[in-house]
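TEACHING EXERCISE
Course module: macromolecular assemblies
Task: Read the component lines below, then compare them to the predicted structure of the full complex.
Student: A.B.
Group: 4
Components provided:
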Amino acid sequence: MAFMKILVAFILLWPFVGFLFNGLGRNYWSKKIIAYKATGYIVASFIASVIAFLHVQTYGAVTVHYFDFIHTASLTIPFDFKVDALSSLFLLVITGVGSLIHLYSTAYMQEESAPHYARYFAYLNLFIFSMLLLVLGDNYIIMFMGWEGVGLCSYLLIGYWFSNGNYNYAAKKAFIMNRIGDLGFLLAIFWLIAKLGTVSYSEVLTAESLAKLSSADITGITLLLFVGAMGKSAQIPLFTWLPDAMAGPTPVSALIHAATMVTAGIYMITRSNILFSHSETTQNIVAIIGISTALLAATIAIKQNDIKKVLAYSTVSQLGYMFLGLGVGAYSGAVFHVITHAFFKALLFLGAGSVIHAMHHEQDIRKMGGLKSKLPITHITFLIGCIAIAGVPPFSGFFSKDEILAAAFEKNKIYWVLGLVGAAMTAFYMFRLYTTTFLGKFRGSHEQEAHLHESPLAMTLPLIVLAILSAVGGAIGIPEIMGGHHWLTGQLSTIVSTPHEASLSVSTEWILMSVSVAIAAIALIIALLKYTKQTDEEPSSAIGKFFYHKWYIDEFYQKTIIEPLNEFALFLKEFIEKKVIDGAVNGTGKLVQFSARKVRLIQNGQAGYYILFMVLGIITLFLIWFNDINILRFIHTLTQS
Amino acid sequence: MLITFLLIPILTAIVLLFIKKDTLAFQTAIAASLATLALAVFASFNKVETFDMSWLPNLNSRFTLQADGLAKILILLSSISLPAILMASNKNEYKQKNIFLSLLLFTQAGLMGVFLAGDALLFYFFWELALIPVYFLCSIWGGEKRIAITFKFFIYTFLGSLFMLIGILFVNAHTVEHSFSIQAFIQANLTDGQKITAFALFFVAFAIKMPIFPLHTWQPDTYEQSPTPVTMVMSAVMVKMGLYGILRWLLPLFPVAFAAHTNVVVFLSVVGILYASFIAIRQDDIKRLIAYSSIAHIGLMNAAIFSGTGIAIQGALIQLFSHGINVLGLWIIADIVEQQTGTRSMQQMGGLAKKQPTLAILLVGFALANIAMPLTNAFVGEFLMFNGLFILNPWIAGFAGISIVLAAIYTLNMVQKVAYGEISEKINAMPAPNKAAQLVLIILLIIVFVTGVYPQPLFTLTADTLQQLIAK
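Instructor-supplied answer key:
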């Protein structure tokens, strides 16, 4: 126990120490020290996480207690942390992928001056810390701390280049949208406390607790939790912040989209799966929102020309798949997809960063092309990422996506069909992106062409590692029909209450798999053929424009929510406050003054002083009238005491 | 020892009247305020004797000072605030600075008296006493519109006080021995109808002081026009007089009438929270923004207390302290920016993060506390208060909860306009950072995070008060 107590503290506190070190010392350290320290702390945390993971493998789950955060008569919320199969897996992903992103950043952010370089890494470390807090906590309050913490860090990092007003706006948008979700989460917590008096997992997620909750309670709580997940994991209707979040430095996008933040919603629902499994309504809503988001984002991704935007919408879309998995009860499938997605999406974003780096901050893929020969490592690793996300076997994305689709098929065939459509679009837009960027002829300026270069080792090494993981990461969940054991499902069997059991016949499963692979392959080849020769111009068709402009959802929110609320606030400020309320107050005052003037009580403008003397007079009268001598006696005793 | 909380500020205030040299006056004031702080820290961790002395025997009013957790936490807040305010605003130029400082100390004495008084008449006496120096401070050193604004402020709060005085005399007339002691007041023989009348009389005074929507319009004007150190005293400590009055007098004296008014008061408070939050979104004047933000926060505390749930009252008890620390930090930053740029309009700011990075970081820190981020002090209090509101009525909690989104909007607006973007002309003209004020801010921010991670000392401190209140 004592060992785990120290170990958990190590895992958590190293990133925090890194935050303090670089945050407080931003004016003192050289860039080299900043880079070594920031990356070193995360690597240290990763090593500790590996030990914790092995510990769980050998000895099982452990809960450690430090001190009580809140301890009142009716409510106790301890600083307890839980290392079990689920959290230890997330630990590995967060600190592992996190370390690679840190390493990559040391080179990518080289242009920044030392204080800003330090600020960047301080935020990055804090991000990892918040995420670790989120997954390690043994109750919903600690999860909420990390939950809001990652929201804050994303705010700070999206707005990292703070001189740019648009970036600030994107940062603020991310935070506020997340806060809307957070409110849902918070209300769910209150609901739990009101009914159960506790928020600890070990007490909430039990049969006895479930017995105390009515089905309306469970549906209400899970829906509110899901609202929280919508915000953090960018689902309809709270998804528009995520594509804008690419205003931050590119490695930050990798961090937000892959290792941290957006996976929080999946983690939360998987953690609470006992509750979710008891509400059919919530599960259906989760599945519908998930598949809708997957499709909506995919249609948008097809039309975008900014390399990071395509990837951003692809994240939204992939998250939709994960929620579809959660909604149909394939919890371990969703976690599986979180893990493989963390590998290939981090890879793709970092690869995009490498391209942007080489292209001198050019992000428009129409101005790229033919980068294959100039950036060989970036090219091959990016290609692996594309194959993985497109769902081509035996790359990792195939296995995780297939598991979700198989579960969807069982639950409702429509989910499966829609999922296939989404999978086809995914393969299409990813290979549109790949082809336009790396194949064909170079379309940028001569200046850019002259400067094209492969990135330094600190950047390519993470790409290579992530490419390997993207390629073979599926091994943790090879289904039984392929002769595997599905290690991951076995791992999570203690966490996931009703492990998804394949009731499909072997032949059906093979057919499903073949169909999805065939569809992905066709979409992939079409994209390859189409975009080697041409690039997309501004769309001219109505539907093309509609997708290109992201379904006008931002504009819709602007017109129907933001502007009316702003007008309403102005109305309150200018009319209700000034005219109605203050008007009434001043009116009363004037009336009194007016009548007073009539009876000639107040004769000059110094009414304030007049009133003041009145009060002084009253107090003096009080004292003298009742007992003049006692005041003297009082002063006398006072001096004697 | 409780009497020293009055003696130190009063005697120092008197001495200050004769110290014409600014530096010496400042040093004297700082020394006195630090001595009070040391005493307050000591008192917080120790049991203190009730101080009792004859005062107005003919009236049966005694000079009783007593301190439970509620009093102690406010004494502590008041004692932390004054040296912080003095240090942070020392660079500001005020004519006749010794008198300015003297009046600030008188104010502190009044506040201490309010929080310590165990006798209703004494309570009233200090209630007014705290108001008078503030009146002078605002009307002499305030902004352009000070005369009209302070007049309104004074009339408004004074009107409330008069109601309370009538209430006090009314209850007094129904006590066994015509006593003013709090125990006698609790045992007063009032019919249910009379209790409601008395409840209303007290409530008006407290409601104006806090203020509760729609009695709040004096506050933003006054905060804007007052010299900022005075705004700090009013906003960090003085508004707590209203909440204190409710916890100390209203709830123990009239528990039944209190419970009967839960719905209407909670409703008004919640409307006020959202109303003030919306208005804060549209403010360009940084002081007015903080003022409206504070109205929203105080509204939440009032709603929490009136919810009558133990958990919400616990939240409010520690939020009394936390809100003071946080709002003080924001005011100090607003004051530095105003003093150094000559403007309060946020449109003319921007780029502070480039010009004075440390101050910008501190601003972000206090902004986080203002939106009750977890691991800041405000989260603990707000979490418990919302929790209690949810137990009272989930819809009310959900409705009031919208304010956490609105708070994020207006607070981040402020951060963006002040700290981020390109450096504006006004910000660029800022002189060297005000090191003393920054040090104060750093200390306050440490309090924010320490009590945010480990709030237990605050729970322990207020445990006795909570127990008594819940027993009601």
